[in-house]
Every structure is written in structure tokens, then in C-alpha cells.
Amino acid sequence: MSDVNKKDETAADHGRCMLNRRQFLMYSGTAAVAASTISISLFPGEAQAKARVVTYPRKKVAQLSQLKDNQPLDFNYPDDGPNSQCFVVNMGGAKAGGGVGSRRDVVAFSYLCTHQGGPMNGKYQAVGEHRVLGQCPLHLSTYDLTRHGIIVSGQAYQSIPQVLLEVDGDDVYAVGIMGLLFGRNQNLMDA
Q1: Is residue 130 annotated as a catalytic residue, yes or no?
Q2: For this structure, is 14 an active site residue?
Q3: What torsion do the CA atoms of 22, 25, 26, 28 make, to the nearest 10 degrees?
Q4: What pTM does this model have?
Q5: The one catalytic residue among 14, 130, 139, 148
Q6: pLDDT tens track for 34-58
Q7: Rounded CA gap, 181 and 108, in Å?
Q8: Can you say how many angstroms the Cα of residue 136 is from the centroid of all Cα atoms in its chain?
Q9: What angle do CA 183, 185, 191 make, to 5 degrees?
Q10: How far is CA 147 from CA 30, 101, 107, 131, 160, in A?
């Protein structure tokens, strides 16, 4: 058989699919949209449900003018329940993901390691341009606080929960948490 005839063979001749990855993804995405549109139009009352929205409390945790560079200030958030120990810190000009203030260098995080809940109170470090929390006393996990608390070494596999901050004048408020506090199945005790 010549090379010209080989190129003209069909998928049936080979017993395999002749779609490339891009075509497969495009067709399967189109099929999923069509299926969901059909199910919503056939059963319009079935697709509606009311969502229960639970909000975090807004809690004053510091004043910008009183935060000293690289000296954490402790607080509990979102409540005074178990595993709610947190800290807020002005990282001395080191811009951070989720940072507030004029230099975007004020952040807050949980003190408990996401691996096994090791307490990391007093483990904040400013080394050159790096701002880290750790090492955890249990398995040496360390977190990069300039990048939303991402794990940089150790046994943990999740980022340290970051407390979302809001500034109102000179006051710094905790308004939410990104991530699940260690030892809890939900961050809000009364949710």
C-alpha cells in the first residue's frame, strides 16, 4: 500500500478515534452545556433553591499606627473557640498577597499548622526579603506569608489559613478567612 493510500484510511480502519485533544475537549464541553440547558428548561422549578449565606463577623484586630514592623500582634478569629489563634503583622514593606495598608504589607494568618495543628506562636520570621511562619515544632512545615501563606517546606499540603483584612481609617478589621482552620469542619462555630 502506498503512503498516499495510508493517509486516506479512516478511523474504522484503525479501530481508534481520530479526534485530537482540542477537538475532544471542545465537543465534550459543548455536550455538557447542551445537557445542562436541556435539564434546566425541562425542569425549571427543580433547579431553583435558596442559598443560606453565612457571613464572618467584622472584628477590630489592630490599628495601623500601632503596628510595629515585623512584630506580630495576637488575636482570636472568627470567635474565641478552639483553634482560633491568629496574628496580624506589618511585614515592614514586604508586599504580600492579600496585604492591606498603603504598602500592602499588613497581613493576618492562623497560628496553627495545617498538617497536625502544631502551634506556631512566636515562629514569625523576617529574613532579608522573606517573611515566613514556621518551622512547625511537629514536622517542620514552613509557610511563605508574602504569597497567601503557601507551604514552602515540611509535611503540610495546604496553605496556612489567611485572615482577610479591611482597613477603615487607622483601624484594621478581620472580615473573613481563606482556608479551613485546623481541627474544625467549618470556620464559623454557629454556622
Answers
A1: no
A2: no
A3: 150
A4: 0.73
A5: 139
A6: 666 665 555 555 556 676 667 899 9
A7: 13
A8: 20
A9: 125
A10: 36, 16, 11, 9, 11
